[in-house]
Write a structure and sequence with these properties.
Layout lengths: L19 H6 L10 H49 L3 H14 L4 H13 L3 H14 L1 H4 L3 H16 L3 H14 L4 H13 L3 H14 L4 H13 L3 H14 L4 H29 L1
Helix pairs in contact: 2-3, 2-4, 3-4, 4-5, 5-7, 7-8, 7-9, 8-9, 9-10, 10-11, 11-12, 11-13
């Protein structure tokens, strides 16, 4: 015998899975079965919330990264203010903060390099200048501060008879400012100390072409020419140097004496090296 389906008041049949009791409990009407559309409409608010959450997560890193340059600039500005008040330690601390916030901010390295140089830390200054050049080459090009840092360290190395290190620094100085007369002069002197008079004369020529008012360059070129047997040219250089120095011969003589002592010391060291090799 077939099962009778429960009737509603309107005479419609309920589906078999609902009992008479269920039908009667809802006022004689068939219960409504949830459809696919109902499920999807329930998910819409959840989707909206999910999209909002994702949007916030995506926007937050961009917002944070946008704040980095602003914070770094703020610290650099504070560092410049401290540097202007001769607070070198405080300025370096501000530049450190800028670099911690944004390690790619070239101006922070450039200004910290200036502060380190002012504090006497040439190695630290040059490290910062190299970072500046790597990040933003335009900032390092023709930059007098960077050139001077290399010249100062090169001069110190030359006086310590570290001529190889000095030549490297002078090369860097010329790379950053190819029109710096002092850089060619000092590199020429370094070449002269190691006995390379031809290279020395070439650098002295370049230095004089950029600035012909330095009496010491003429004096050293005269000495270099003298070692090459160019007596008449050497004499002209000595006379020109003396004239530029207001005929104060003593200073030029002392300068050349110091140069000769360095040349002799280098010759002695090279002689010792040759003996050890033999």
């Amino acid at each position: 015998m077939a099962l009778a389906l429960p009737l509603t008041r309107g005479g419609r049949f309920c589906r078999p899975r609902y009992s008479r009791i269920a039908a009667s409990n809802i006022g004689g009407r068939c219960p409504r079965i949830p459809t696919r559309r109902d499920e999807m409409s329930g998910l819409k608010p959840m989707k909206r919330l999910l999209l909002i959450a994702v949007g916030v997560l995506i926007a937050f890193p961009f917002s944070a990264s946008a704040q980095k340059p602003q914070s770094a600039k703020k610290y650099v500005k504070q560092g410049l203010e401290r540097f202007g008040r001769n607070d070198i330690v405080g300025a370096i601390a501000e530049y450190d903060r800028a670099i911690n916030v944004d390690p790619t901010y070239a101006e922070a390295y450039l200004n910290r390099g200036k502060a380190r140089r002012a504090a006497g830390d040439l190695d630290g200054a040059i490290e910062d200048y190299e970072m500046t050049a790597g990040l933003t080459p335009n900032l390092a090009s023709n930059n007098h501060d960077i050139t001077q840092a290399y010249l100062n360290r090169g001069y110190i190395r030359s006086n310590r008879m570290d001529i190889e290190g000095a030549l490297s620094d002078f090369d860097h100085a010329i790379k950053y400012d190819p029109n710096d007369a002092e850089a060619y002069f000092k590199r020429g002197r370094a070449f002269l100390i190691i006995g390379n008079a031809k290279f020395a004369i070439a650098d002295f020529d370049k230095s004089i072409s950029l600035d012909d008012r330095n009496p010491l360059v003429f004096a050293e070129r005269g000495y270099a020419r003298q070692t090459q047997g160019q007596s008449s040219e050497a004499q002209k250089d000595f006379e020109r140097g003396l004239k530029l120095n207001n005929d104060l011969r003593l200073m030029l003589d002392l300068h050349l004496l110091d140069l000769q002592m360095q040349i002799k010391e280098m010759e002695r060291r090279l002689s010792v090296i040759k003996k050890n090799i033999a």
